[in-house]
Amino acid sequence: MSGTGNSFKTAVWAGEKLKEHGCAASVIPMEKASLKNNPPSDNNLTGIFTPTHAFTAAWPAIKFAFMMPRVKKAPAIIIATRAGAYYGPLPLPGMEGTACLIIALILLLKGYDIRGFAGMDMPTNWLALHWGMTEKHAQYFYDKTKREISAFMDTVASGRRIFKGIPSWIMGLTFLPVSFAYLIAGRLMLSKVMFADEKCTSCGICAANCPYGAIIMKGEKIKKPYWTFKCESCERCIAYCPEKSIQAAHSYLVIVCWLLFGAVTAAVQQVIIQNPVFNNEFASMIFMLISSLGLFFVCYWALYLITRFKPFAWLFSHTTFTKIFRRYHQSDVTLRDLKNGK
Q1: CATH of the domain at 81
Q2: Were 107 and a residue from 112, 153, 272, 291 both cysteine, which residue would form a disulfide, CB within 3.0 to 4.6 Å?
Q3: CA-to-CA distance for 23 and 117, rounded, in angstroms?
Q4: Is residue 276 very low, low, confident or very high in pLDDT (cuts 50, 70, 90)?
Q5: pTM for this structure?
Q6: SS in 3 state form for 7-65?
Q7: Which of 77, 10, 68, 16 is nearest to 47 (CA)?
Q8: For residue 272, what pLDDT band results from cuts at 50, 70 and 90?
């Protein structure tokens, strides 16, 4: 799984190292992998490369691991790319948390022989939240990870096992509530903050290249992208938009959060108090979650409708930080690579 090319490029480097050892290797996007027709065997090494989302594996990678066929001792490795960042002149590593651990546990239960796992630092790429990294700073993490993945694959190719990042996944266990909240609700809500500003040409590149089919081009005369709840915040659309017209609506998010934690929360709590069905804490939590997602859906539909008009699109695009953020994607990875593999 890869949005901006970080996990993809790490997988390519791993494959190049295997080729040096005389092995054939290919990088296949998860959404195109057909393991049921060609299941892993003890003669093939399967690698899952996933970005880290909220200190754990991205949901599509977890879902993919659950869908992998049961085998008998087929070797596998797991690599989680994590957000390496610069703070002033200082490069700092990211934290993959439980990303490798959760995938490894799923594969173990399915009969796979885990030969190794590790977290690898690649340039932080949450473009809806922060400025993209400069090429110079990004290159530091490219060089670092290429060296580390090369050493990792040398160890695996020699028949030895290697498990890195154990302190990171121990810390990740303390963040499990954050990871769980993100997987259950956070990722769904984050999908409802993206929009196309007045520079959008309706080219449809974002929709055609979304790995999850989460973007729909809506409209009769002028089509504009609409983000559904299937969005996984992989950032591919915002990173590769040729017009840089895709934005995260920060001002809109402030309004929605004000509604969510203000009037709507008060109204929902009144319903919970007055209805004995919700005396159960779990039932009230589920009701609050459904109400929150409903609010995001309604508000996002309103955002989509009004930003079809250029004055409103201009207003929201000029009250968001993504308007001035530098865009980032792995410099050597094209949309064709991400869609078709290598």
Answers
A1: 3.40.50.360
A2: 112
A3: 20
A4: low
A5: 0.88
A6: HHHHHHHHHHHHHHCCCCCCCCCHHHCCCCCCCCCCCCCEEEEEEEECCEECHHHHHHH
A7: 77
A8: low
Q: Which pLDDT belongs to residue 264? A: 62
Instruction: Report if residue 41 sits inside a domain.
Output: yes
175 and 256 assigned to the same domain: no
| Alpha carbon 95 to its chain's center | 14
Tokens of 331: 């410099």
Q: Which structure tokens are listed for 317? A: 């695009």
Same domain? 46 vs 126: yes
Q: Which range marks the domain in which residue 259 is found?
A: 251-302
Tally of structural domains, the chain: 2
Backbone angles phi, psi at 243, to 5 degrees: -100, -5
Residue 44 included in any domain:
yes
Q: Hey, is 135 helix, strand or coil?
A: helix
Q: Which of 194, 218, 149 is nearest to 7 (CA)?
A: 149
Assess if residue 209 is contained within a domain. no
One domain, residues 261 and 169: no
Give the CA-trace dihedral at 120, 126, 132, 136, to 10 degrees.
0
What average pLDDT does the chain have? 87
The DSSP symbol for 182 reads I
Q: What beta strand segments (E) does 73-223 contain?
A: 75-87, 90-92, 113-123, 162-163, 194-196, 215-218
Q: Which run of H or E residues covers position 225?
A: strand 224-227
Note the pLDDT tens digit of each residue in 39-79.
787 788 999 999 999 999 999 999 999 999 998 889 999 99
